[in-house]
Amino acid sequence: MTALEFFKLLSDETRLLSLLLIIEEKELCVCELMQALDESQPKVSRHLAQMRKVGLLVDKRQGQWVFYRVNPVLPEWINNSLVELSANNTGLIAHKVTSLHKMGDRPERVKACCS
């Protein structure tokens, strides 16, 4: 991934917030991001697909549901950027994390949104 691709991805609010939430929670499914962002499934899925396509995110299928996390083999400069981005922008996602956590703990969230 080039620097231009990376920063273009971050220039969209939905992608930026999704990425920050995924960093905060380590792994999220589309339904969890829909809850946190108050966005439609097609919009969230489209943005996640863009980040997956360039290798920023990786996914894993669990039944019919797909969970996303940050790619563990990103270049060091991207990892460093993500650490700084996350650490210095917690206020940007604070109310979205609160909304996400209203879904319950991880196993309950999966049952509530993904069963």
TrEMBL record:
- Record domain HTH arsR-type: where: 1-89
Question: Which UniProt key words apply to this protein?
Answer: Arsenical resistance, DNA-binding, Transcription, Transcription regulation
Q: Which Pfam families match?
A: HTH_5
Specify whether DNA-binding is a keyword of the entry.
Answer: yes
Xref: NCBIfam families: HTH_metalloreg, PRK10141.1
Please report the name of this protein according to its UniProt entry. Answer: Metalloregulator ArsR/SmtB family transcription factor
Protein source organism: Shewanella eurypsychrophilus
